[in-house]
Amino acid sequence: xxxxxxxxxxxxxTQEVCTWLQQNFQAEMGEKIITPDGFRLRFSQLNxxxxxxxxxxxxxxxxxxTTYLKVFRVGQPPKTQEKLFLKRLETELRIAFPYxxxxxxxxxxxxxxxxxxxxxxxxxxxxxxxxxxxxxxxLKRVYWWEKRWREGVKNPQTPKQVIFKTDTSKPSDSPQxxxxxxxxxxxxxxxxxxxxLGYKVLLxxxxxxxxxxxxxxxxxxxxxxxxxxxxxxPTEIESFIAREYKDGFHKFFDAxxxxxxxxxxxxxxxxxxxxxxxxxxxxxxxxxxxQAGGEIWDETEFLKADINPNLVNIKSLYxxxxxxxxxxxxxxxxxxxxxxxxxxxxxxxxAFDSVCPTxxxxxxxxxxxxxxxxxYGDVLxxxxxxxxxxxxxxxxxxGSGNELTFxxxxxxxxxxxxxxSLLEMYEDFFTILPEYRRCDLDxxxxxxxxxxxxxxxxxNGSSDRKVGFDxxxxxxxxxxxxxxxxxxxxxxxxxxxxxxxxLLNTALKHNLLTAHWLDKIRAYQxxxxxxxxxxxxxxxxxGKYLPxxxxxxxxxxxxxxxxxxxxDIAETFIKDRTTWWIFTKLALKAARINPLLLVWILDFITLxxxxxxTKNFILFMALSVVSFLFGWLPNFTRQIQPxxxxxxxxxxxxxxTTSYALTDGLGKxxxxxxxALKLKMS
Length: 682
Hints:
37% of the residues lie in helices and 22% in strands. The chain has 24 helices and 25 strands. Strands 6, 7, 8, 14, 15, 16, 17, 24 and 25 form a nine-stranded mixed β-sheet that branches. Helix 6 runs parallel beside helix 9. The model has no long low-confidence stretch (mean pLDDT 90).
């Protein structure tokens, strides 16, 4: 018996597929014998060497809320007829069960609740959100975010206009604030740092401040930058660490992979092994901001910004009373993430190239003993193959007490026909969680949902994405400059916090607030710009059917290489610190272990994208050489700062951005310039 066909049929209605196979599909050859999960196709001639018939066995099964089909050959059926049968079967299956890219219904919350409006289409999602504190509010938030995301994806060339250049202010007009931040999750951390430098800061947040639907993980070594900048003390850092576990696992389903594409578990004990209590972190950051004279306007929605030559004028809406609020500042900082209309406006059709639609929940008990050891994290895991055009990936991080945080996500290339759905993912999540970790959903203690769209950008160089405009700059997910492979927006911000703070402080100090200078203040890293090719290898192109095990085979190949490499290599790669030499060795080793990688990747990319990636790789190599030759530049830059900066501030700014590009931009962070940054903090 030999497997000769393996297909994913993109529908959760497995019984409908089985019935179609048994009743509607006409084999037009052999004798069709119905079985519980499909049928057998028997050919007239007995196998001469055994008593077995020559047959094809066709059956279906369900996992991950989708349907899979396999065909096995028994004996020696006629080869010509077998080939014709397989072709007809796949062709007619694709016609009968095509991809369905559903959209959430249009709803009117003045007529019915969010639960009533969505229950028909997403019954499990409604059922379990009802069990969560603030579940109705959070489900409204999921719906709002998906609608906002879809609007941006479907109208990339004509995004909503929210930034306007005007000249209505007078030169004598004095702005109320130095900085206005829009977005209070990642935004408040950076806002607090800048406020403690002596700047007058306003933070505007759409939600009640301190609420968020994400949990964060990081390593202790990365948290150190928050101490180095003077934002938190070591004691304060400990106050928002929920759990530190001793190891993290990376393992991908490989039951149907070829032998050379199977791998052992990758262990990363010092990667993402510190779980943070995000609410305590945000609360403490907010207190630091206020102590330094900053203000917070929560439950306030950003409407528009008028950019004047000497200030930016912000209009917003205070949601509880629906009253307009305005404020002026020297600089506007967009930290709204993928919901940012500013990011869509500035970057038009390429606001975001890829995205991870991510859903999950914090669960505070209810699992049977032995289901999971809370001293470990499941960093990346798959328990099945491609599901309805997506390779679903799990994350599991223990928190404080009995808390376990679950994430379910997939890598996805942005497409107007198929933007990526949070609500559909939630229906998957509540259906297949027991497949991933044994549980009774009704016995679990649901604390809160975790969800969002985490963006990525396929870089074509250090300046192909706009992150700056006159008196406006994007940070965090709105800038979308984090690794398109690792997708750690929080980690990216923390790793680049010193760099962003130093450059922004310099720009404000010397009033270098035009688009030309602000666009140079970015968390771009040349060493991670090449990883987008690998992330493409985890995205099923919209409308395309791939062998179900292909993405798991790619994942197992590459992470298998990391698993057998020294532990510090894997840590360097996942923490965005990889060098050109390490990256090249890993890529060549993966290609040597699995030469088919070079062929498989062609299912995901075009020739133009191969050329674009080659350009990135050559640039990475060239800058690595330049960085080696000019390794003395950062120290020299700091030595001449007292003389150069006050005399030639523009030259100083250019030299500083160049210095960071050759260090932090290649995964080799500079020591934070404490003397320069702490002057206003003492």
